[in-house]
Write the structure tokens for this entry.
Amino acid sequence: MAGQVSLQYSKTPLQNSINDAEPRWVRWILISAALGFLCLFLVLPLAAIFIKAFEKGSDVFLAAISSPDALSAIKLTFLIALITVPLNAIFGVAAAWAVTKFNFKGKSLLITIIDLPFAISPVIAGLVFVLLFSAHGLFGQWLMNHNIKILFAVPGITLATLLVTLPFVARELIPLMQTQGTADEEASLTLGASGWKTFWLVTLPNIKWGLLYGVILCTARAIGEFGAVSVVSGHIRGMTNTMPLHIEILYNEYQFSAAFAVASLMSLFAILTLVVKNVIEWKANKLFIPEKGES
């Protein structure tokens, strides 16, 4: 932790020299260009979603988000997130712990596997489960004989979402835990603490902000996932449609106001996610970077 503080302070003079070297007008042009790009490609489309959602009045908006199909899609979306995010959090902590605290054969392979969902298309991820669990898939006949339904049901959607959100928590924690090293855990074990107690009282407090950050990103991806879920869901109204799939169906049926109404709910969640993320970053920076004048 002390190393992190000294690192932050060592960067400050360099940052100040870079700022002084650039003319003010250059900085203003760069800032204006960045803000203009964000307004054009982010703020304006986001505003258009809300304008279109309320285009026909609040009654149409409320009817769209309170319809049985919309409520089912909302419930299913958050159910999938409620299942996948804790599982990915547990996996992420365990994987980061294994990668950063131990040396073993196959560590590089484990890191590669963790990163694999970033490299493949979500549609391909969904097709993997079709090849495994469909009627003509690898396990399809056995599943049919035991009356177990994976595809076109909640288990298939959960598995597809788990796969595409697998790296988020682990990839947030691995660099953080590598930076922290193993000194704190070794000191705890030397003082007689058990491995489990060391994890709860030493490791977890040290990684809590990174863990929360990864959980937020994982939740946002789980709620907004479209490609993999679209392949395995079957698009059954009121049963296997998540919010992104429900929006697609409404839009294809030319129910634009209803589609944008549901989309506005997802946009609100995205904004909330951004606010929470910034609060976590602010708290983490305030924790690790002391105020001027503090030792």
